[in-house]
Amino acid sequence: MSSDLADIGLIGLAVMGQNLILNMNDKGFKVVAYNRTTSKVDAFLANEAKGTNVVGAHSIKELVSKLKTPRKVVLLVQAGAAVDSFIDQLSAVMEKGDIIIDGGNSHYPDSIRRTAELEAKGLLFVGSGVSGGEEGARYGPSMMPGGSAAAWPEIKEIFQKTAAQVPGPNGDEPCCDWVGGTGSGHYVKMVHNGIEYGDMQLIAEAYDILQVRGLDLSPSEIADIFIKWNTGVLDSFLIQITSEILKYNDDDGVPMVQKILDKAGQKGTGKWTAINALDLGTPVTLIGEAVFARCLSAIKDERTRASKVLPGPEKVPFTGDKQQFIDDLEQALYASKIISYAQGYMLMREAAKEYKWELNNAGIAAMWRGGCIIKSVFLGDITKAFQKTPDLENLLFDDFFKAAIAKAQPGWRRVVAQATISGTPIPCTGAALSFFDGYRSETVPANLLQAQRDYFGAHTFKVLPGKENARLKAGEDIHVNWTGRGGNISASTYNA
User: Fold this and answer.
1) Which secondary structure element, helix H or strand E, spans residue 110, and what is its range?
2) Is 95 a catalytic residue?
3) Omega before residue 174 within 30° of 0, cis
4) What is d(CA 148, CA 71) in angstroms, rounded to the nearest whole number?
5) Measured distance CA(373)–CA(267) in Å, rounded
6) pLDDT tens string 446-489
7) Has 205 been annotated as catalytic?
8) Residue of 173, 196, 205, 289 marked catalytic
9) Which of 21, 133, 319, 467 shows its CA 20 to 30 Å from the CA of 298?
10) Selected catalytic residue, list 40, 189, 271, 337
């Protein structure tokens, strides 16, 4: 009987998959669980899912047979070939209008391809970013679905009830909404992860400034600063866990953070974001620097050798007003975060043009307010900015953020100056300020770059408005024979 059929199926019983199934079950949905190693299905039903309404399947065909129509199946398996393999198996037994949802960390071009392939077969495909780790999956993640628009009404209730809930003006609001067209869900998750790289690096730089190379504070003292910051504009999950990390001591009483090798790993989503920014010609400098900071951390042996032969400034004890400097650092971190999100939205704006998406900008920030790694109070202000001005060109043009940057700017500059003087690397904090100064400059020295390119490669330039004459025509690609020895033939032009 149809009443005995399940609402949704899920393939992949690693921790994320198990927790998401239990979460959906708690919200009143009947879920069919399947794993390629079917013994894991039986073990899950006998242990973690014991006493729930979760049912198991031992084959793809059995899984599909136990679902209500249109059938909905979530894949939480390793990105890449495994996703394509399960899609092939599902599409062989599914019917027109059925829905396949990839909830893993797939690269958005794969989601674009999969949407086209499945829609050609009459099936619907959703690529959904899922953020929040194991705890988020169990109690409410941030979910970012995009793809075949016809799928959204069919999965909306399940997704929005399963997602994290945050207080809103009219009650709790889900950290899940429809992102946009094919590939956009995984694209937005990619940008989320890139911003996460930036946030983590900015916090690490603040920590570095406060410890031995700066104010000479202990991890516990730095933790107290982060606890205070978490009650203000920096209120966020990452600030919270940083304070908890810094308070944690090993069994011998030594702070655990001081025993951890300073080599950071990465899974690639930050790199994807930086590469895409270069492809689209968008200056997402902060995320790029965050990725390179991890790369620099990875060459530990080489840095150790360099530390013994390359001189830097002598360490001088800080003699200024410590509390004022800590307040400056709070504002520097806040301003840099604003720049990071402004750049992220610039990238999503260009991607929307490139891939013909209508992105839900206010909804994207709202989805990130809870359940995910970058959740923060700050995201509510981004949501309000796009609700007020849906076609907002840049977050920095919003009155709230314009005022916030103006307030933060003096302290931000003092922190960057002090870090430079003391020899403390601040790749992201410094890049954020450099971007801000470049973005607010009507004139930048790119005129000299173009002159150089034309000098050595005849790459041409355009004349500055108001400087036209008989030789320099408005709107034309102009080449000058700078030495009198070159010719007058220009190279072909292109936009990179």
Assistant:
1) helix 108-120
2) no
3) no
4) 14
5) 15
6) 999 999 999 999 999 999 999 999 999 999 999 999 988 866 66
7) no
8) 196
9) 133
10) 189
